[in-house]
C-alpha cells in the first residue's frame, strides 16, 4: 500500500488500515483518493463513520466497487453501510458477525429526509485522440440541469473550473484518468468519468447522476431525443438509464433506500431483439424500454435483452459478380 495510507490511517493493523471519519458529508478527499486508488494493497481499507454521516457519490462508487469497506458505528455496534450487515471488531479488522440478523438496526431506519429520485446515465464512447473531451458530460448536464458543469477534478471538492481544454490536456498526459465533474446550482448533478487512452483513440466511460426532489419526475420521455441529438457527433456507443430513490443532494446515507432500476438501453446503430423488446430509432441510436417498476425482474429483463441483442444485418447489395 502507498505510504500515504500507512501514515494517514488512524488505526493500522496487520489486516486493515482504518480511517475514523466524523463528518456530516464525507467526500472523496485527496488523502482518501490516494489510499483507495493504491494498487494491490496488503491491508483492507475500512472507513468508519457514525450513522449521521453521508457519502458523496464518487466516494460511494469506489466503495461499491470494492476499494474499501464502509463501517458504520451505532450505539449497539457496527454494520456495513452498503448492505446493513452487522460487523464486529476482531482486534485487527471489522468482520461480519456469524449468524447475525440480516440488517443492523441503524440500516433499517427511515431516511433522515424525504427521498426524491436519482436519474443515472451510464454511457460508453470512443473518441479519436484529437477530440476535445468532455462534450458528452457538458451537453447532457446542460440539457438535464439547465446549465453547464461548474468544475472538474480528480478529488472533492473539485480543483478546477470547468474547461474542456484543460481536461483534455490532462487526459492526454495520462494513460488512464478518472475525473469528477460537478453540476451547476440549478439542479444537483455529478459525473464520474474514466478516460483510457491508446495511440489511436480515447475510451470514455461516464456515470452521470441527476437529483430530483420528492414529487418531481425525471424527463424520461424526452431523453431519447435529448441523447440522440448529442450522440450524432459524439461517438456515443451505448447508454443505460437507471432510476432509484435517493436524496436530491446526491449524498448517500447508511440506510436502506431500495435498489436502482434500469428503465432504458440505447445502442448506436440498428439492433434486433426478441418481440417482447419493442425498439425505436432516434437519430443514430436504437432504444429499448425496460419498464419503470423497481423490481428484480427489471434487472432480469435487462440481462435477457443484452444477451439476445444482435446487430441488424443490412440488406445485401447486388454486384456484378452475383449473376456469374
Care to describe what's here?
- With 324 residues, the protein is α+β, with helices and mostly antiparallel strands.
- It has 2 domains: 3-108, no CATH class; 116-310, no CATH class.
- Helices cover 19% and strands 35% of the residues.
- The strands form 4 sheets. A 10-stranded antiparallel β-sheet has the order 12-11-13-14-15-10-16-17-20-19, with helices on both faces.
- A hairpin with a 2-residue loop joins strand 6 and strand 7 (77-80).
- The chain starts with a helix and ends in a 13-residue tail after the last strand.
Percent of residues in β-strands: 25-35%
- Main-sheet strand order equals 12-11-13-14-15-10-16-17-20-19
What best-fitting shape do the alpha-carbon axes yield?
Answer: globular
Largest sheet: 10 strands, antiparallel
Share of helical residues: 10-25%
Distance between the termini: 68 Å
Mean pLDDT figure: 90
Radius of gyration over alpha carbons?
22 Å
Category from helices, strands and their pairing: alpha+beta
Helical stretch tally: 7
Short description:
This protein is of the alpha+beta class and 324 residues long. 19% of the residues lie in helices and 35% in strands.
Considering the chains and any ligands shown, give keywords for the structure.
disordered C terminus; 21 strands; alpha+beta; seven-stranded mixed β-sheet; 324 residues
In terms of topology, how is this protein built?
Blueprint: H1 3-8, E1 11-12, E2 16-20, E3 25-26, H2 30-36, E4 44-50, E5 54-55, H3 57-64, E6 69-74, E7 77-80, E8 86-89, E9 94-96, E10 116-128, H4 135-145, E11 151-153, E12 160-161, H5 164-172, E13 176-182, E14 189-197, E15 201-212, H6 223-231, E16 236-246, E17 261-268, E18 271-272, E19 279-282, E20 285-289, H7 296-308, E21 310-311
Parallel strand pairs: 2-4, 3-5, 4-6
Antiparallel strand pairs: 1-2, 6-7, 7-8, 8-9, 10-15, 10-16, 11-12, 11-13, 13-14, 14-15, 16-17, 17-20, 18-21, 19-20
Helix pairs in contact: 4-6
